[in-house]
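Figure-free illustration: sequence to structure, shown twice.
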Amino acid sequence: MKPAAKLKPVAQSPPRVGLPEIFWSWLGAAIGIGLCAWLSSQFFEPRDLSLFIGSFGASAVLVYAAIKSPLAQPRNLIGGHIVSAFVGVAAWQLLGGTTWLAAAAAVSLAIVAMLATGTVHPPGGATALIAVIGGQQVHNLGWLYPFIPVGAGALVLLAVALAVNNIPAGRSFPEYWR
């Protein structure tokens, strides 16, 4: 097949979503991210911890706006973040003296681990990378990082997704639990 032939579209773009879908996606993201930030500032940051990492922004897009996607399902959200966090911490601990190598290992091996465990969640790649480039505060967490902020924060996002995504009659989350 010629290279140009591979670039031809094979499907139509999906239809745009309506205002109700936009509203519920906004509401879920506002509550989920807001709750993580509030809990972090009130309970975690006073103890030199956090409940907040950048990859949760991308998770919010999936679990509040792309709720039918296999990448947004609970197993993927929780498992993808936690598996990737463990990989990221291991990469930092083993290769941290060479940041570029630790970063490459963290993300690439997180992808392998998520594929192998059936927990692919794209923000997990960022979670692994944050374990390497997140700075001294993240490095000081060590093996706590997969649990706090990663696991606990992902559970907050999931709890809000379960509540908000099931309020309107036309939305249902999750598609499956496995």
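We now fold a second protein in the same way, so the two outputs can be compared directly.
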Amino acid sequence: MFNPIDYILNTTGLARTKKVLQVNPTAPPCREEPAKSLITVFEYNAEKAECKKLETVEETFPFLNSPSFTWINIDGLRKDDVDTVCNHFGIHSLIAEDILSIGQRPKMDEINGIVFCLLYMLSFNEKEACVETEQISIILGKNFVISFQEEAAKDPFNPVRDKMKVAGSKVRLNDADFLFYSLLDYIVDHYFIVMEKMGDKIELLEEEIIKNSGNRSLVKLNIIRKEMIVLKRSIAPVRELIGGIMRSESELIEERTQKYFKDVYDHIIQASDLSENYRDMMMNLQDLYLSNVNLRMNEVMKVMAVVTCLLAPATVIGGIFGMNFENIKWLHQNSTFIVAAASMVGIPLLMIRVFRKKGWF
């Protein structure tokens, strides 16, 4: 059934505004759970790398004491599965709550010898022209890494898996903390791809505003501003997250891996600065749009003022000779009409010459 309210919200972008701004991490999660979680286990060391797909989370239990390093990835958040895995691997209940939360700010925690990170993978939806976010939780333990992904249908970490399949790769030659770094590094590097898409949209909008700004340009301007809010809210806290890892004294993060986190920190600073630059550009585009609107209005007012001035002599002359008096000098002479008509035409022509000489139009 057609709902005019929904139509107005979707048309004007108010529905997107509500989704972007109304975020309450303390509210009970109302996420629709998938029918089944997709569980992938990567067991690896310098000599071998083996990938397995499991049916239930209970099958991950033996990997807790595996002699090799293990990466357990769970696509799709189901409360029972998350609680089961956290209980078995000694992960605190507060971390389990953060994994299941919605709208949580990117953060880093270190509880009971476990390093936990929560942040967002960003992607750009070309069809809807919006930035999509997926909450990702990554846990570093002794000889294992566990990652929880919100979407069961999407898995952004395939490039990391491809590196792990290559013998002699750095992921295979290092401990679990290097895999932990690799996942964070891939998420941060993907921010630049999304921002590049947003940069293209901003450039097109700038060109449109300069050439022909109108109501459509204003709508696009507001839409992109909302997406910049999503970018800023997702990227800015990651700087603090990476900084917390660098300051951590956890035994799980070796000293030789610290320099790699420094590289991620440099990237996230650059991404954060770029998002600020985009925000400034949007403010400048808004000022440019308002300037163009005011300039167009001034041009219209200028034309109307010129037309009014040109019609003023005819109005005055017609008003004088149209007054209801009988004793008006020259009123009944034959040449009066010719002189009046000539004046009505000649004076505006003279005014046009004067206006052009002064450069008023």
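Summary for the second example: Strands lie at 38-44, 49-54, 69-75, 107-111, 114-125, 130-141, 144-149.
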